[in-house]
Amino acid sequence: MQKDFFSYQAQTTAFAAGFEVERAEGSYIYGKDGRRYLDFVAGVSANTLGHSHPKIVEAIKEQAEKYLHVMVYGEYAQEKPVALCRLLAEATPDPLEVTYLVNSGAEAIDGSLKLAKRYTGREEIISFKNSYHGNTHGALSVSGNEFHKREFRPLLPMVSFIGFNDENDLDQITEKTACVLMETIQGAAGFLVPDKDYLVKLKKRCGEVGALLILDEIQPGFGRTGKLFSFEHFDIVPDILVMGKGMGGGVPVGAFMSSREIMKTLSHSPKLGHITTFGGNPLIAASSLATLQEVLESGLMDEIDEKEQLYRTLLVHPKIKNINGKGLMLAVNLGSPEYTLDVAKRCMDKGLILFWQLYRNEYLRISPPLTISKEEIGEGCKIIIEVLNGN
Q1: pTM of the predicted model as reported, rounded to 2 decimal places
Q2: Counting Cβ atoms within 10 Å, is residue 68 exposed (0-12), middle (13-18) or buried (19+)?
Q3: Beta bridge partners of 213
Q4: How far apart are CA 272 and CA 249, in angstroms?
Q5: Which residues, 6+ apart, have CB-to-CB distance to 66 below 8 Å?
Q6: What three-state secondary structure class fits 167?
Q7: CA distances in angstroms from 346 to 6, 273, 352, 384, listed in the order given
Q8: 177-183 vs 212-216, strand pairing mode
Q9: DSSP letters of 112-161?
């Protein structure tokens, strides 16, 4: 299978692991080599409730027995997509009330940009240096790392970038600005958290000039920081909220959410302002609904702070420079990309799955399922310390 993987499936790096997966359950992935591996990555923040969570599996089976795809997005009322959008509205603060379901976080970014332009009638987009929002042409255009996008130019025009947490740059947001797009916690740059009052000042500036604030919660959303969405830590509400990854509990999904007033502008002049065949797919919506219900009802979010502190307590070592992030979104700085990749490989050899940050390869990514136990955290951290000690 590994030979066929490298022969027939397109690769994204020159050093893909090619790890052969047999099955996955809870916090573990089981390989065809007969070993089990503790997962500290959760499919890059996607498997919110771990692998093969019984409530997700049951929801998918139940829906599959009724019907799969029946119509393009936005035409038919289907039970699971409608219930998902209603629960999202009930679980988020005003004025967030209407959700557009799509296929991925990157598509949700593209849709949110179109929505902001359509509603404001403006063309300028402001994003942030070192931001990451996905790899479609639109999402890549508003991502702030030139190395990762220069080979694909020309991209969207009229996009500029300001400094994360830099209040001096806020005056670049003007009456010409359609929207400001920001990751509530910068992901690829190393899980950077905004200063406590920065988002308040950013939202105030957007309000002063009539620009919409779009928050990208594709990674930190769905309980990963101890709140359903991480903006809830910062005393503001975005005009448009973007979500994905952990929303589906392991299936491909994305969405953008706004007020009814703003969202309705995509339905006319022209109609079909955004259209997607498989967005709102009932099978995917069933999985997403089961995930959201479990996150809201299980008490998992109440455990996040304690689990974060356990990681920070156990991961103390001279080779660890610092640990960025919030909740179960942690980036461990090991000083150099080469060393970090070596540590990740050696941890894998010992049965622990780790990954690295896209832009900052000197950081180890720790983004386990929210369901991970304290014992499993201890087990994985012990392996990391053993590897750092050269054992």
Answers
A1: 0.96
A2: exposed
A3: 180
A4: 29
A5: 282
A6: helix
A7: 22, 49, 9, 9
A8: parallel
A9: HHHHHHHHH---EEEEETT----SSHHHHHT---GGGTGGG-S--SSEEE
Q: What is the pLDDT of residues 5-21, one digit of tens each?
A: 888 999 888 878 899 99
Pairing outcome for strands 98-102 and 124-128? unpaired
Q: Are strands 352-353 and 36-39 parallel, antiparallel or unpaired?
A: parallel
Per residue in 88-105, pLDDT (tens digit) is 999 999 999 999 999 999
Contact 311, 304 (CB under 8 A): no
Tokens, residue 129: 């240096």
Among residues 183, 139, 177, 137, which one has the least CA distance to residue 160? 177
- Give the angle 189-190-194 at the CA atoms, nearest 5°: 85
- Reading phi first (left if > 0) and then psi (alpha if -120 to 50, else beta), residue 142 is in alpha
pLDDT digits (tens, 9 = 90+) for 326-384: 999 999 999 999 999 999 999 999 999 999 998 999 999 999 999 999 999 999 999 99
**Is 209 within 8 Å of 173 (Cβ atoms)?**
yes
Closest CA to 271 of 47, 7, 74, 69: 74
- CA 320 – CA 186 distance, rounded (Å): 20
Distance CA 326, CA 217 (A): 13
Provide the CB-side half-sphere exposure for 277 (13 A, CA). Answer: 2
Please state, in angstroms and rounded to a whole number, the distance separating the CA atoms of residues 327 and 367: 9
- The reported pLDDT for the residue numbered 358 is 87
Q: Which two tokens stand for residue 356?
A: 């690295």
Structure tokens at 201: 């000042």
Tokens, residue 276: 């997607």
Nearest to 305 by CA among 203, 198, 221, 227: 227
Burial per residue of 109-120, b for 16 or more beta-carbon CB atoms within 10 angstroms, e otherwise: bbbbbbbbbbbb
Helices (H), 268-360: 282-297, 300-314, 337-349
Whether 176 shows a pLDDT value over 90: the answer reads yes
